[in-house]
Write a structure and sequence with these properties.
The complex is a heterodimer of chains A (about 150) and B (about 425).
Chain A lengths: L9 H8 L12 E7 L4 E10 L2 E10 L2 H14 L4 H16 L8 H4 L12 H18 L8 E2 L2
Parallel strand pairs in A: 1-4
Antiparallel strand pairs in A: 1-2, 2-3
Helix pairs in contact in A: 1-2, 2-5, 3-5
Chain B lengths: L17 H6 L7 E2 L3 E2 L1 E2 L10 H14 L9 H20 L6 E6 L2 H16 L5 E5 L8 H10 L2 E5 L9 H7 L4 E7 L11 H10 L3 E5 L11 H4 L3 E5 L10 E6 H4 L12 E4 L4 E3 L13 H17 L1 H19 L5 E4 L8 E6 L4 H10 L2 E2 L1 E3 L4 H6 L5 E5 L6 H18 L1
Parallel strand pairs in B: 3-15, 5-6, 5-7, 7-8, 8-9
Antiparallel strand pairs in B: 1-2, 4-10, 9-10, 11-12, 13-14, 14-17, 16-17
The chains are: A alpha+beta (about 150), B alpha/beta (about 425).
Bound molecules: pyridoxal-5'-phosphate.
C-alpha cells in the first residue's frame, strides 16, 4: 500500500492552492449543486453553452484538495469543448476511478486526468474526485435534477 | 483461546499507570500502514476494547451461550444470570438510584428513539414543545423532529456562543410551561463542550419538563452520578465506553418508563398474548423485545467493571491532562483554529487548518498511523454554526499519552509543509 502522500501529485496541490475558473458566474445556462453527504462538502458548477460547445464553466464550493483540484482541472479541460467531448472525458474518468489501483490507465483518453489514478488506492476519496464530474454529467443532460447531485 | 488472567486486575488504590493500562488493550500494540505504530485518537467515534471485555464475550460463547429468560435448562439460567448481572453492573456504574432502571438497547441512538417514541406517544401533544440544543448529535435531533412532526409539537433549539457553550439565558427563555421534554448532550462529540447538566435538569423539572441527557460522550470520560445530575433519562453507547458495539443503555425513572407504551412488540416484552389482547411485561422486559444482544450486554458489564476498577475519577484526571496539554500543543501549529473553546471540555478537540481541508489532514496523518476523524461528526448544525463543512477531530481515551499528542502535532506540521 502506498502512502497517501504520493496521491497528492504536484498538479493536484497546484490546482488546490490556485483553483482555476473558481467563483460565481453571471447568467449561466445551467447550475448544478453537488453534495458529498459523507463529508458535507458542497460544490456548485455553472455552465454556459454556445450551440454544442461548453463555452464557459466555473465552480464554487468547499472541498478537500482532491475534490477542489478535480473540479478545477475539469473546468480547464471542458471549457471550449463540445458536449460530446465533455461526456467522453467524464466517461473515461469515471471508468478509471472504478478500476483497481493496479489496472493500467488509458493515458490517451485521460490526458492530465491521469494524476488522479493514485486516488484509486483510497476508496473513500474516489467520491471526492468524482463529485464535480457527477455535477457536470448531470448538467450535460437534458433534464436538470431537482435535488443536489450526490456521490452516493 | 488466549488465557489472560492478569489483565484487568488492577487494584483500586493503584495510581494511574497509563503504560500498564495500554497493555490491557491488545490492538494498541499493532502497527498500521507499513509498520507505523498505531496512534488512536478517534475515541469519540468508538473506543478500543480491553482484553477482559474481549475475553468475556469469547467466554460467553464458548461456555455459557443460550437464550435468556426463556429456558429451564442450565445454560439458559447461566446466560440469564450473566445478563442480569450486567444490568446491576451498569446500574452501579451510573450511580444506582432507587426507582431507576437500566434498559438495554442496541445503542445510544436506539435509546433516544425509544424515549422519543414512548414518551412522545404517552406525554407529548399538539402545541407542546421539545427543547434541544444547537450542539446535538443527529441522533438527538432527528428522533425529536420525527416526534414533533407526528404529534404536532414544536422543536426549539438552545443556541450556543462562539466558544461552543450553551447560552443559558436563552435556555431559560425558551423553557416554558409548554416544554414537555428537554434533551441535551452531556458532552458534545463535535466540540468537546461539557454542559451544565445538573442545572439544566433542575430548571427543567421546575418548569415541569422531563429531561434526557445524552451521555454517549460523557460516560467514557468521567464518573457519572445520576443522583447529582437529576435526569429522568440518561443514555450511553456501549462501544464508546470500551464495551462492544451493538449495545446501548437507557437509564431512566421507573415511574415514567412504566407509563410509556412499549416501542417494539415481540417476545420477552409480554405477560400474555391472545389474538384479541396482549398484556405487556413490566420494565425492563417491556422495552427489550426479542432476543437481546446477550454477549454484548455481558461484554459491556465487564467494561463497566473494568472502568470502575481503574477509577473513573482517575480516568477523568488523566484525560483532563491530555485535554490541557493537547490544546496547548495544537495552538503551536500555525494556521490551526480550534473549534470549540468552552471553559469546560472533555474528550475531543475539533480543529481546522487554513491550508488544508480536514479530509486531507486526516489522510496525511493516517500515513503515519495516526487515526483522527475528519468530517461533520454527525453534527451538521454545529458545522453550519461555525461556517465550516467539516473539522478534523482528535479525541482521547484513557490509554492515550502526551507522546501521542506530540506525534499528532508533528504530523500537523508536516501537513502544513505539504499544503501551505
Ligand atoms: C453525543 C452522541 N450522541 C449519540 C451518539 C450515537 O451513538 P450510537 O451511534 O452508538 O448509537 C453519538 C455517537 O457518535 C454521540 O457522539
Amino acid at each position: 500500500m502506498s502512502e497517501a502522500r504520493a496521491m497528492y501529485e504536484q498538479v493536484i496541490l497546484d490546482h488546490n492552492k490556485n483553483p482555476r475558473n473558481f467563483g460565481p458566474m453571471a447568467e449561466p445556462d445551467r447550475v448544478v449543486d453537488g453534495f458529498n453527504p459523507l463529508c458535507g462538502d458542497t460544490l456548485k458548477i455553472y455552465l454556459k453553452f454556445d450551440g454544442d460547445l461548453v463555452s464557459d464553466i466555473k465552480f464554487e464550493g468547499q472541498g478537500c484538495a482532491i475534490s477542489k483540484s478535480s473540479a478545477s482541472l475539469m473546468t480547464t479541460l471542458v471549457k471550449g469543448r463540445t458536449r460530446a467531448d465533455a461526456q467522453a472525458l467524464f466517461d473515461a474518468f469515471h471508468h478509471m476511478l472504478k478500476t483497481d489501483h493496479t489496472a493500467p490507465v488509458d493515458e490517451a483518453a485521460l490526458g492530465k486526468l491521469k494524476v488522479f489514478a493514485g486516488v484509486r488506492e483510497f476508496p473513500v476519496r474516489v467520491k471526492c474526485a468524482t463529485l464535480a464530474w457527477h455535477a457536470l454529467d448531470s448538467a450535460l443532460k437534458e433534464e436538470l435534477p431537482e435535488e443536489p447531485v450526490t456521490t452516493e | 483461546m488466549a488465557v489472560t488472567a492478569p489483565h484487568c486486575d488492577l487494584t483500586p488504590a493503584a495510581p494511574y499507570d497509563v503504560d500498564r493500562v495500554r497493555r490491557d488493550f491488545p490492538i494498541l500494540s499493532r502497527t498500521v500502514r507499513n509498520g507505523k505504530k498505531l496512534v488512536y485518537l478517534d475515541n469519540a467515534a468508538t473506543s478500543q476494547k480491553p482484553q477482559c471485555v474481549i475475553d468475556a464475550i469469547s467466554r460467553y460463547y464458548s461456555e455459557d451461550n443460550a437464550n435468556v429468560h426463556r429456558g429451564v435448562h442450565y445454560l439458559s439460567q447461566r446466560a440469564t444470570d450473566l445478563y442480569e448481572d450486567a444490568r446491576h453492573k451498569i446500574n452501579s456504574f451510573l450511580g444506582t438510584m432507587v426507582g431507576c432502571e437500566t434498559i438495554f438497547t442496541r445503542g445510544a441512538t436506539e435509546a433516544i428513539n425509544l424515549v422519543a417514541h414512548g414518551f412522545g406517544k404517552g406525554f407529548v401533544n399538539a402545541g407542546d414543545e421539545v427543547l434541544i440544543s444547537h450542539m446535538e448529535h443527529h441522533s438527538n435531533i432527528v428522533p425529536w423532529q420525527m416526534l414533533c412532526e407526528a404529534r404536532g409539537a414544536t422543536l426549539r433549539v438552545v443556541p450556543i456562543n462562539d466558544d461552543g457553550e450553551l447560552i443559558m439565558e436563552e435556555f431559560d427563555r425558551l423553557l416554558n410551561e409548554r416544554t414537555k421534554m428537554v434533551s441535551v448532550t452531556h458532552v458534545s462529540n463535535a466540540l468537546g463542550t461539557v454542559n451544565p447538566v445538573a442545572e439544566i435538569c433542575r430548571k427543567a423539572r421546575e418548569a415541569g419538563a422531563r429531561v434526557l441527557i445524552d451521555g454517549a460522550q460523557s460516560a467514557p470520560h468521567a464518573p457519572i452520578d445520576m443522583k447529582a445530575i437529576g435526569a429522568d433519562f440518561f443514555v450511553a453507547a456501549g462501544h464508546k465506553m470500551y464495551g462492544p458495539t451493538g449495545v446501548g443503555v437507557l437509564y431512566g425513572r421507573a415511574e415514567l418508563l412504566d407509563r410509556m407504551p412499549p416501542w417494539q412488540g415481540g417476545g420477552d416484552m409480554i405477560l400474555s398474548v391472545t389474538f384479541e389482547k396482549t398484556t405487556y411485561a413490566h420494565i425492563p422486559a417491556r422495552f427489550e423485545a426479542g432476543t437481546p444482544p446477550i454477549a454484548e450486554v455481558i461484554g459491556l458489564g465487564e467494561a463497566a467493571d473494568y472502568l470502575t476498577k481503574l477509577g473513573m475519577d482517575k480516568v477523568a484526571q488523566h484525560e483532563h491532562d491530555l485535554m490541557v496539554y493537547g490544546t496547548e500543543q495544537l495552538k503551536q501549529v500555525p494556521g490551526l483554529t480550534i473549534i470549540g473553546n468552552a471553559k469546560e471540555k472533555a474528550g475531543a478537540i475539533s480543529f481546522t487548518m487554513d491550508c488544508a481541508h480536514p479530509h486531507d489532514i486526516g489522510q496525511l496523518l493516517d500515513d503515519e498511523g495516526i487515526a483522527v476523524r475528519a468530517g461533520h461528526h454527525c453534527a451538521q448544525p454545529v458545522m453550519r454554526r461555525y461556517g465550516v463543512a467539516a473539522t478534523a477531530r482528535a479525541s482521547f481515551g484513557l490509554y492515550n499519552t502526551r507522546a501521542e499528542i506530540d506525534a499528532l502535532v508533528a504530523g500537523l506540521f508536516r501537513v502544513r509543509e505539504m499544503f501551505a
